[in-house]
Amino acid sequence: MIQYLDNIHHKNSKNFFLIAGPCIIEGEEMALNIAEKIVEMTNKYEIPYIFKGSFKKANRSRVDSFTTIGEEKSLEILRKVGETFNIPTTTDIHENDHAALAAQYVDVLQIPAFLVRQTDLLIAAAKTGKCVSLKKGQFLSPESMQFAVQKVNDSGNPKTAIIERGNSFGYTDLVVDFRGIPTMRNYAPVILDVTHSLQQPNQSSGVTGGRPELIETIAKAGIAVGADGLFIETHPDPSVALSDGANMLRLDKLEELLQKLTRVREAIL
């Protein structure tokens, strides 16, 4: 996928690429500060980098869960991040009309896991001509993702990637089956969504839990088995994040992790 992004840096470094940022856009200053720090880190380790932030969250446990500071306001912030640092940006879309809207502001459209079988949504994303990242449903086999990729390809868009984000294991846990990464690489580049793979959904409180202490373990394993990229949500203080704080990585811990992961990557090349 990254070969289609003209504004991505270190494309020829042979390192894994990184999609990282806050779960949701909480404000312009926060987004710019996070992006600035990650750009510094990724330049240091020659990691191709895509900034991620949701402009709106549709999959919420409760009706009073935070969803957006404003759709167009969030998209404008994503555009500003991209222009300020000359980096590609990505956001997730949930409705067919969101595809054309978000495509005006970002470089990569992300299809959420629960919506990856929605044919019309995939076609709408493909028709924008933007790169399309497809999150594997927690309920899908790795082999089934070839059909999601084919839907985008058959719509005239070869710019795809697959995001692994764990499999449902009972009602309140997720487990990553690392055997699926080499399987899915037969269909498209594969990105391991480290932080969402550590979610603990369906908690009795109505707020999703997580296991952030395992981020390094999951990330190292993903690189070791050949993942092309990693997806890591990060925040200066996850305890006050407006969405998914329970499974995010503290921003001040990211550089040490990237240093370790770069060494793992070098060891397998």
What's the quick description here?
The chain is α/β, with parallel strands linked by helices and 269 residues long.
Describe this structure in words.
One of its GO terms (molecular function) is 3-deoxy-8-phosphooctulonate synthase activity. This is 3-deoxy-8-phosphooctulonate synthase. It is found in: Cytoplasm. The chain is of the alpha/beta class and 269 residues long. The protein has a single domain (2-10, 18-268), classed as Alpha-Beta Barrel (TIM Barrel), CATH 3.20.20.70. It is 33% helix and 18% strand. The protein has 8 helices and 13 strands. An 8-stranded parallel β-barrel has the order 1-2-3-4-5-6-9-12, surrounded by 6 helices. A two-stranded antiparallel sheet has the order 7-8. Strand 3, helix 3 and strand 4 form a beta-alpha-beta unit. It is globular and about 40 Å long. The chain starts with 16 loop residues before the first strand and ends with a helix. The model has no long low-confidence stretch (mean pLDDT 94).
Oligomer: single chain
Low-confidence stretches: none
Specify the number of helices: 8
Q: How many β-strand stretches?
A: 13
The helical percent reads 25-40%
Number of domains: 1
Strand arrangement within the widest β-sheet reads 1-2-3-4-5-6-9-12
Q: Give the C-level CATH assignment.
A: Alpha Beta
Largest sheet features: 8 strands, parallel, barrel
Q: Provide the CATH superfamily.
A: Aldolase class I
Shape descriptor reads: globular
Alpha carbon gap, first and last residue: 20 Å
Q: SSE order, as H and E?
A: EHEHEHEHEHEEEHEEEHEEH
CATH architecture: Alpha-Beta Barrel
Indicate the radius of gyration in whole angstroms.
17 Å
CATH topology: TIM Barrel
Let me know the average pLDDT: 94
